[in-house]
Amino acid sequence: MNDKPAEAARDLGAEADFEAFPAPVEVDNEPYFIVKNAESSAEPYRLISAICPHAGGEVRVYGTEFVCPMHFWTFDMQSGECTNVDGEKLACAPVFVRDGRLYADFPDGKSVKSGTIGRSAERSNAEKGACSRSRS
Ligand code: FES
């Protein structure tokens, strides 16, 4: 059971409605993927932005990675980390389950993608590390 207030997070939909992952979703009219988190059973899902931090291309699922069709940056599907350019990462947020629904735990209640397109170097450490935050 998660003690996060659902009101402060974004409702992504009923867990039962997602049959396959990564599952494409929109938050604030921006594309994301919900992925299964193989690293933690306490945090079974993550939300990863589909917007490439390089120049705003929309990444797609290709095999076991996300690939940006603009300049072919590739990203790990679990962490969002770029696998061919050091230090880059898709924006991401933890997801928690409450009462059978998935909620994205955005910092300050805002989409983690906001303000990051094309300016990945300016992202705050909090945004970069959003996926790896541990819950208490
Ligand atoms: S915009 Fe994605 S690799 Fe350039």
From TrEMBL:
**Repeat in keyword set:** no
Question: Which Gene3D superfamilies does UniProt cross-reference here?
Answer: Rieske [2Fe-2S] iron-sulphur domain
Keywords (alphabetical) are: 2Fe-2S, Iron, Iron-sulfur, Metal-binding
SUPFAM superfamilies xref list: ISP domain
- Nuclease among the record's keywords? no
- Where is each Rieske domain found? 10-104
Query: Cross-referenced InterPro entries, in alphabetical order?
Result: Rieske_2Fe-2S (IPR017941), Rieske_2Fe-2S_sf (IPR036922)
Which residue stretches belong to region Disordered? 113-136
What's the name of the protein?
Rieske domain-containing protein
Organism of provenance: Paenibacillus cisolokensis
Q: What is the lineage of its organism?
A: Bacteria, Bacillati, Bacillota, Bacilli, Bacillales
